[in-house]
Design a protein that fits this description.
The chain has about 90 residues and is an all-alpha fold. The protein has helices spanning about 1-10, 20-35, 35-60, 65-90.
Length: about 90
């Protein structure tokens, strides 16, 4: 990711943003309520992330390297989403 930012002439972020704080907080709150709540919170985070990576991988102005990076990330997050959905159903 740092290489892509450098190629675009921008500075890569070095720490998380407000979205990261919200997703981490959602998991921390769910922890109090048990495994099923944690998995549900993780699934909603995965849904958001999958959507963002899919959009980024298809963005018409993106350079090929970033499209490839985001497509790989999209596929990885999609696997995580399937796992959280499958595992969550088994706890029902």
């Amino acid at each position: 990711m740092t290489e892509i930012a450098r190629e675009l002439g921008i500075e890569a972020p070095t720490e998380g943003d407000m979205k990261q704080m919200l997703t981490t907080g959602k998991i921390a709150l769910a922890d109090v309520m048990g495994d099923k709540a944690i998995l549900k919170a993780m699934k909603t985070n995965e849904d958001d992330t999958v959507t963002a990576y899919e959009r980024a991988s298809r963005h018409e102005d993106a350079i090929p390297e970033s499209k490839a990076f985001f497509m790989k990330a999209y596929q990885d997050e999609e696997r995580h989403r399937v796992w959280t959905s499958t595992t969550g159903h088994s706890l029902s």
